[in-house]
Specification:
5 helices; 7 strands; 196 residues; 29% helix; Maf protein; alpha/beta; seven-stranded mixed sheet
């Protein structure tokens, strides 16, 4: 039995392999499985987008399929960029530009109103069509500058008060222990245990 991850991102696949290592299942990316799928992610929530991706790949394989969708939610910006996190200001726009734009939009907003979080939804579809969804968040505040070299995307602007560091300043182990994706994956691990 395999888990096919609806991504070509090896970092995501590695994280899933690590968290699911006790399930005795091969974890492969859809590209490793020879699957080409790129459905339009037009859901209103991270969970809906994760299910869109999982369903598209599930139609092409008999194995368990896992997909995720995640992004940054900034309360003072009415939840932006939210489900549009990847395409905020355009897919080809660098995250340095995206981060600078968000910091600029929060100019003058006091620290106690800069709350934000990374959110992730994981969708799994079992061979029999059973659909499972789990979610996780990582709470923080939007900083006043980019900091750190260990992350990607919006990591350099999410400050984590409990660590007194930015997400991009955490080691991979520290981040995996508290990350939104890690939390959602650990919940999914326990869900899958019930079905396997």
């Amino acid at each position: 039995m395999k888990i096919v991850v609806a991504t070509g991102n090896q970092n995501k696949a590695r994280e899933i392999r690590e968290i699911f290592r006790d399930l005795d299942l091969d974890v492969v990316t859809m590209k490793e499985e020879g699957i080409d799928s790129d459905p339009e992610e037009n859901g209103a929530t991270f969970a809906e987008n994760a299910l869109i991706k999982a369903r598209a790949v599930h139609a092409l394989t008999e194995y368990i399929v896992i997909a995720d969708d995640s992004g940054l939610i900034i309360d003072a910006l009415n939840g932006e960029p939210g489900v549009y996190s990847a395409r905020y200001l355009g897919y080809d726009t660098s995250y340095h530009v995206k981060n600078a734009n968000l910091i600029e939009r929060l100019s003058g907003v006091p620290e106690d109103r800069r709350s934000a979080r990374f959110a992730c939804a994981i969708a799994a579809i079992l061979p029999d069509g059973t659909e499972l969804v789990t979610e996780g968040t990582m709470e923080g505040i939007i900083g006043y500058e980019e900091k750190g070299e260990n992350g990607f995307g919006y990591d350099p602007i999410l400050y984590l008060p409990q660590f007194q560091r930015y997400s991009a300043e955490l080691t991979p182990d520290e981040k995996n222990a508290i990350s939104h994706r890690g939390e959602a994956l650990r919940k999914m691990y326990h869900e899958l245990q019930r079905y396997l």
